[in-house]
Design goal:
alpha+beta; D-amino Acid Aminotransferase, Chain A, domain 1; D-amino Acid Aminotransferase, Chain A, domain 2; 9-stranded mixed β-sheet; 7 helices; binds pyridoxal-5'-phosphate
Length: about 350
């Protein structure tokens, strides 16, 4: 069933006021948003309308009990300048997995995909054309029912907003392996892209930054021994020619870039092992000279090379050169902009 999305556009776009060569990260929003309401057990009134403030009741349940989840994805332009999405069905799947964990309604995949298609078609003039740039898309859902009391809300909003993002700065990152705070425990919400997970990470991240690091490397909640993931990325290590990445175990976000990178590495002939990895192993591999490369994967930057990992009073230094990481980064970015073939069928053209 096609969803009848009503479209009400602004009279005057703000796009002309954007300097595409100097886009402030995360602060610029496009002219429109997609909005859909959940009431009486169904999603109703899907619409694209001018982006504006949304009146919120002070008892809206998301504000008190945290039923709020989100996704992050990017629209790029292809060879002929037409907009493209990257594996959007994977974001639909993950949003719904998050929704189930947080006691929220799921969004029919067809509605999710149509919403993304229509909003990107509406805002295509905002997709920055420069190499490495994209239109960041933020689908999210929250409980907007005014109610005081602990139960699942009955009213929600599913919204998509868009924010142009300039070429990301590919600086190597320094990680801080956290041994005081945790991100996720088994049975918790670590596998959901739930707003509360990020709220809980803010203080540890600020503390790590104050110590001179860029992001936190999370260790498991029981023993602070097993590596989970980085602030907003999954993590890969190249050890003695082979790649390893922590196995998803319910406490790690199932990154779409992670999944894509595993496929790409295998297609390039590398062995990739998904298994539990301890920080002590990484220290040992580093001492033996077997730790060759390490990088984080996520939608925001695709691949972020790791310079070092601070753990207790040790610093694990990574080698200067990252030939495979560089190659994977280039491949993934070129597939996203159709400069390379897309043998995996990841690219979805926007129909409008
Ligand atoms: C906690 C966390 N882990 C991993 C990722 C990477 O996921 P993806 O590759 O789907 O962007 C993200 C970003 O969405 C994240 O927030």
């Amino acid at each position: 069933m096609a969803y009848a999305i009503t479209i009400n556009t602004t009279e005057k776009s703000k796009v002309d006021s954007l300097d595409f060569n100097n886009i402030p990260l995360g602060k610029t929003f496009t002219d429109h948003m997609f909005v859909c309401d959940y009431e009486n057990g169904e999603w109703t009134n899907p619409r694209i309308e001018p982006l504006e403030l949304i009146p919120t009741h002070p008892a809206a349940m998301a504000l008190h009990y945290g039923q709020a989840i989100f996704e992050g994805m990017k629209a790029t332009v292809g060879k002929d300048g037409s907009p493209l999405l990257f594996r959007p069905e994977q974001n639909a799947r993950r949003l719904n997995e998050s929704a189930v964990r947080m006691g929220m309604p799921t969004v029919p995949e067809e509605l999710f995909l149509e919403a993304l298609d229509k909003i990107v078609a509406t805002e295509k003039g905002w997709i920055p054309p420069q190499e490495g740039s994209a239109l960041y898309l933020r689908p999210f859902m929250y409980a907007d029912e005014p109610f005081i009391g602990m139960r699942a809300a009955t009213h929600y909003k599913f919204i998509v907003i868009c924010s142009p993002a300039g070429p990301f700065f590919t600086k190597k990152i320094r990680l801080y392996a956290e041994t005081e705070y945790i991100r996720a425990a088994h049975g918790g919400t670590g596998e959901a892209k739930a707003a509360g997970n990020y709220a809980a990470a803010i203080l540890p991240t600020e503390k790590a930054k104050a110590k001179g690091f860029d992001q936190v490397l999370w260790l498991d909640a029981n023993e602070f021994k097993y590596i989970q993931e980085v602030g907003t990325m999954n993590i890969f290590f190249k050890i003695d020619g082979k790649f390893i990445t922590p196995k998803t175990d319910g406490a790690i976000l199932k990154g779409i870039t992670r999944d894509s990178v595993i496929t790409l590495l295998k297609s390039k002939g590398f062995e990739v092992e998904e298994r539990p990895i301890t920080i002590d192993e990484i220290i040992q591999f580093s001492k033996e000279g077997k730790l060759e490369e390490a990088f984080g994967t996520g939608t925001a930057v695709a691949i972020a090379m790791i310079e070092s990992i601070g753990y207790k009073d040790i610093t694990i230094e990574l080698p200067e050169a990252n030939p495979v990481s560089q190659d994977v980064m280039q491949t993934i970015n070129e597939i996203k902009t159709q400069k390379q073939e897309d043998p995996f069928g990841w690219i979805v053209p926007v129909k409008g």
